[in-house]
Structure formats: C-alpha cells, structure tokens
Amino acid sequence: MLSSLNYIIKEGRIRIYWIITSFILTCFFCFLFSEELLFVLTKPFLQVAKPKSFFICTQLTESLNTTITTSFILSFFFWMPHLIYQLWCFFIPSCKGSQRVQLAKYGNLSAFAFFFVFFLTFVWIMPNIWVFLYNLSNTSTNMLRIQLQPKIYDFIKLTLRFFLLASIFSQLPVLLICFLEYKKISLEDCIKHRKSAVFLSVLFSALVTPPDIWCQLAAWLPIYFILELTLFTALIQLEYAKARKKLTKKR
C-alpha cells in the first residue's frame, strides 16, 4: 500500500514538474514571437481596414502591456494540450479498457469542436464583426467626421475575449453528449425544450456581438448548427443502441 502511494506521489511530482516547465517555456516563446502572434490576431481587421491599417498607443507602457497580456493568455491556449496529455498519462493507468475508449472519444470530440469553432470564429465571424464596427466608426458628412484610430490594447483585449467565449462554447456540445450518454438528462427533454435552447443561443449571440443583424446571425448560426447537430447525433446513437439491443435479444 505504501509503495503504491509513494509511486503515485512520485509520478505526480514528475507530472507537475513537466506541467510547470512546459508552461514557463510556452510563455517564453510566446513572448519571443509576440509580434508574429499580434499580427495573426490583427490580420482579420487589417484586411478590412486597408489601406489605413494601423493602431495607436496612447501610453508609454501600452505596447508592453499588450505584448505581455497577449503572450500570457495565448500561452494557455498552446499549453492546454500538454496539460491534458499529462493528466491523461497520470489518470489513464487506473481506468479500464472501456473507460479509456470512452475518454479517448470525448477527447477527440472536444479537440475537433475546439478547432472547428476556433477556425470558424477566426475566418468568418470576426471579419464580419470588424466590417460592421469599422464602417460604423468611419463616417464623413458635412456635419460630422469620424475616423477610427483603434488602440492596440483595447483591440487585442476584445479579440481575445471573443476567442475565449468561442473556446468555452465549443465544449458545450461535448458536455451535452456526456450528460446524454450518462443519462443525467434525457434526449426527450432536450428535444422538448429546443425552443428554449434556440432562444438562449439568440440571446447569447446578441450579448457578445455588436448590435448588427449580420454580426448576430454570423454568431448565432454556428451555435444553432452545432446544437442541432449534437441532438441529431445523439438521436442516431440512441436509435442505434435500441436496434442493437433488439438484435441481441432475438439472438
């Protein structure tokens, strides 16, 4: 018993060492390539704002704060796969074969959902939002002239907030499938309250996007599509399980 406990403690120390070391190295390299990372984050806006594609700093330390904030937050995104891998290596020996298969399935589904939503946000949702905000912030009339000069820190903070919300939302279908498979909630209740889910998704899109119908549609359609796809997949799995049980009973 004591030898097993000592082995677990030793293994835990090794995993914690690698987790801390990898996070420090990730922060270092993110800070080292901070200019390239800032360019990637600002690229959707730069494509919209051409040829007047520039940002301003109103404080002497604003550029440094932007670099540190960007490097630190993006470090979590790049470091998270290694953290999950270390946790997997620590806990997987105590799991059965069926549990390993189940965890691997959820892990692959979670990774696919994250990268799909992240790519959709970067390629489609964010450019639509920047187009609306840029056109709204640049007017030229006889009475009023407005020209956008965005601050780099505020822009990066807004961009990272969008990506953080998209990352959190991308895991909701995974949680829904987990609850359905472990019978914490029933599929019938989910189908019954579909209208409430649609209303909540519309409300969520209205809260996180600017007050423009196209921006809200760009944010709502992926949410609605993912929710419907999740329920459809769960329904197919349920019918497949019922048919398999019937075949087993006949045999």
Automatic annotation (TrEMBL):
**Where are the membrane-spanning stretches?**
16-34, 72-91, 112-133, 162-182, 194-211, 217-241
Give the bilayer topology: Multi-pass membrane protein
Q: Which UniProt keywords apply?
A: Membrane, Mitochondrion, Transmembrane, Transmembrane helix
Taken from the UniProt entry, a GO cellular component term is: TAT protein transport complex
Q: Which domain of life is it from?
A: Eukaryota
Q: Does the keyword Plastid apply?
A: no
- Pfam families from the entry? TatC (PF00902)
Q: Which GO terms describe its biological process?
A: intracellular protein transmembrane transport; protein transport by the Tat complex
**GO molecular function (one):** proton motive force dependent protein transmembrane transporter activity
Q: Where in the cell is it found?
A: Membrane
Please state which protein family the record places this protein in: Belongs to the TatC family.
* Name used for this protein in its record: SecY-independent transporter protein
